[in-house]
Amino acid sequence: MATVTTPTREGILSSLVGSSRRRRKERVIHWVMGGAAGLSIIISVGIVLALLFRAVAFLSEVELGALWSGTWRPRQGEFDLVSLFLGSFVVTMIAMVVATPLGLGAAMYLSEYARPRARRILKPILETLAGIPSVVIGFFALTVVNPIVVQDLFGATSAFTMMAAGIGVAILTVPLIASVAEDAMFAVPGALREAAYGIGARRRTVTLQVVFPAAISGIVAALILGISRALGETMVVAIAAGAVGNASRTLNPLEPNQTLTAAIASLAIGSDQVKTRGSGLNAFEVLFLLGLILFVSTLALNVVSERFVRRVRRNF
């Protein structure tokens, strides 16, 4: 009769821990991954400190009244930040007004109406729009959107307009909103849909009153990501809204203007040695202040998004 041996506690622990060779490999991987994470944090902190120190140095050299001069003309010593804020606001709002219904509509269709085969085909096609170079979209907005849509429909006279730039940015923002929102809606449990259909609800009612509220945290996150994408776009705005060195305080979308990112691109190209007229101040230094403002704005959007998602997130 065969004897049954009872495993000891030490044997069980040794089998769970594994061989020493395996443990060495795990330690190496642990340190490599930890080092990569630590290096990314160090780089991020270094970038922030570099922006902060150079921005403070610029503010200590410039008259604060120049930051509220009414116009953005850095080579003439006028650094009106409000002009850039207004330009960024107009372009971002136009982009979101266009991209939000299109992106959410595409997400609802792919999640609730499209057949599985159609979803597998259409979603990658939609996401390829995000891979189109922004300079191509900017040229499209300048040569097609502005003359056909903005000038013919709205009567704009300028070859560069913030509306054309906003529509171009919206084309790049739609795939991001649609993809993230569709993933959030598709993740809603099917039991909720089946329960609604079981009491006689129509598909439209299920989509708008069951699936949409259940996925609201992911949808809001998609919209905030879209705002960040629109706020950080450079080439489309620089091409379609006018790659000029000046900006003014205007909310008219039919006029050319600068945004924070476009102003950085316009001033940074070949201007590292440009001095403002009448002083020895280097206009290039204002770029660090603009970069810091963009960083803080994006960080604030991410914090707001994270807090909102945690507050309204639902567990199923």
Quick overview:
The chain is mainly α and 316 residues long. The chain has helices at 9-17, 20-61, 81-113, 116-128, 134-154, 162-186, 190-198, 203-214, 216-232, 235-240, 260-268, 286-312, and strands spanning 71-73, 78-79, 247-248.
Can you put this structure into words, describing what you see?
The chain is an all-alpha fold and about 325 residues long. It folds into two domains: about 45 residues; about 250 residues, MetI-like fold, CATH 1.10.3720. The protein contains twelve helices and three strands; from the N terminus they run ααββααααααααβαα. The chain has a three-stranded antiparallel β-sheet, covered by helices on one side. Helix 11 packs antiparallel against helix 12. The longest helix is centred in the first third of the chain and has 42 residues.
Q: Assign the CATH architecture of the largest domain.
A: Orthogonal Bundle
CATH topology of the largest domain: MetI-like fold
Largest sheet: 3 strands, antiparallel
- The tally of beta strands, per DSSP, is 3
What's the alpha carbon Rg, rounded to whole Å? 26 Å
What is the C-level CATH assignment of the largest domain?
Mainly Alpha
- Unreliable stretches covering 5 or more consecutive residues: none
Globally, the shape reads: flat
Task: For the record, give the distance between the C-alpha atoms at the N and C termini, rounded to a whole number.
Answer: 53 Å
Q: Tags for this entry?
A:
single chain, 316 residues, mainly alpha, MetI-like fold, 2 domains, 12 helices, 71% helix
